[in-house]
Write a structure and sequence with these properties.
With 201 residues, the protein is mainly beta. The protein contains one helix and nine strands. The protein has one domain: Porin (Beta Barrel), CATH 2.40.160.20.
Amino acid sequence: MRVYAMVLCLVLGVATAARAQEAVFGVKAGISYANLKFDGQEADVNFDQRIGFVGGLFMVWPATGNAALQVEALYSQKGTSLDNEEGKGALKLDYLEVPILARFSSAPATKASFHIFGGPSLGFKMRAHGTGDFADNGDDQDVGDDVETFDFGLIVGAGVDFGHMTLDARQNWGLSNVNKDPGDDEGVKTRTFSVMLGIRF
């Protein structure tokens, strides 16, 4: 819990500093299409997407320029599923995600515009559960001890702002091996595509 508190303090500190100048704040939520990239013996298995929720808070600062910093704090559902002749089950990985993005737009954030963004994302594991072939007994099982606490990723995306609304789509490539006990070079990395609709204040 200390990690989450530190992340929250960081986000609040940035928001407080930005409030002293001109910034745009808002909330956003949407749908994510997540999968995992496996190395080693699972590399040839065709895994299915896990469709989940993603949403939280965001800040764009400064709001008056075409180049800005976009910081977010999101609850993000990742993982994968499997339902074919190779097996059946799901691996559900939920994160507190903090993207720190460079944003470039066709107009300041207070006006209608098209924008692109990219940058690192810091993911902190909140929950890890497995079902079916991802669990020892086939039922819902906590597999948090097998999953790394931190997931570092890279985000690239684009969006539009109109009125008080914002809409964006993004791809998140996990760069960390989230498998805590790899063995035989069995690396596991997250892959997530998401679409979110937000309201700017």
